[in-house]
Design a protein that fits this description.
Length: 137
């Protein structure tokens, strides 16, 4: 099922094979809408490496007990040709300009986390180092 021009529902399914539950479809649709804004801005594909997570799967991989992934409100993403730090900076800029919804942005060594929790939260994952000029966002 197509959620946005460049995003399909199955991209957001849990890595254990569980589909996004019907009661969370509004969340994943809103998430995809915001990721489409990013995609249109950067004009590059976005690879969703982790979307929705069941509570069991989230626990198994050591995710946060209050992870937005369990609400289908979060995606860990990679953009070929852009560093996770650059992707983080672009998302923060799009949030500040009102083009993307306020939410969590986490920088990790190999990917960037974005969620639509509705308030800004920023963090660095284990081993991540932000050397970008606007790292104070």
């Amino acid at each position: 099922m197509k959620l946005e021009e460049n995003f399909e529902l199955d991209e957001f399914a849990c890595k254990d094979g569980t589909a996004v539950p019907d009661d969370l479809m509004g969340n994943v649709t809103e998430l995809a809408k915001n990721l489409q804004v990013l995609r249109d801005h950067i004009k590059r594909p976005i690879i969703v490496i982790s979307g929705y997570r069941t509570k069991r799967y989230n626990t198994r991989i050591g995710g946060s007990r209050r992870s937005q992934h369990m609400l289908a409100k979060a995606a860990d993403i990679k953009v070929p040709g852009l560093s996770p730090s650059t992707v983080k900076d672009i998302i923060v800029s799009l949030i500040k300009s009102g083009h993307m919804k306020s939410g969590g942005v986490g920088l990790y060594t190999t990917f960037t986390h974005y969620d639509i929790r509705g308030r800004n939260a920023r963090w660095y994952g284990k081993g991540a180092k932000d050397d970008s000029p606007s790292s104070g966002a």
